[in-house]
Amino acid sequence: MSLARVLTGAAGLALAAGAVAMPAQAAAPAPAPAPASDVHTKIIDGRDATDAPWAARQYNAGQEACSATAIAPEWVLTAQHCVKDAGDDISFHVGSLNKNEGEEFKAKPGGVHIHDSVDLALVQVDHPMNVQFAPLGTADDVHNGDTVQTYGWGATCTDQPEANCQATNLKVADVKVTDTACTDYRGGTAVCAERGDGIPAGGDSGGPMFANGKQVGVASTSDRQSTTAYNNITQYRDWIKQTAGV
Fold first, then answer.
1. Does any domain span residue 246?
2. Is 0.85 surpassed by the pTM of this model?
């Protein structure tokens, strides 16, 4: 990948860099026309989130990996690069802004569904989540020039390995949309944005971008400094509905 790194780092943290968003394990996103090569990400700067009942911290084989969102009683939305090598050994902590709290939900056997061409995945969990689910947006909810919110438990540092500084509490940062039709880590349609009061990094991969109170993106890549790329989920609502029913 040329411009961005995926948002994944050590211990399974992902987020591609160079394009708009990094893949969601432990890396940072950034806008780019071609997919990034390295997978690492977390929100640098920004602030602590205070209201995100749909937030899900993803673990692969018991190791923190990515951020994600609960979108239906048994369904979590994340990035393809956050799950592609994890098999069914995926779990989520849901119901708390602290990654060490909340209830654990495990992927059902055969419950990981990967989009065949873009950086999106859906995971069916083993029992229903009793939380407020992320409302999914449409193309009318996000435009060039908008200030939107990105959420994640990713890295908060750039001077050491990202796995060493994963956030304990969910973070949020404002970013400014520069393009609603750029590309994600796999070449899918993405929302690219530039740094506002923070930028995603390794571990923020798979986490959401919200515009007008609705989720419009999933973190794919980031350069950890100024740009990030989030898969534009408004363009893939048919696949989400077919798979998860929402």
1. no
2. yes
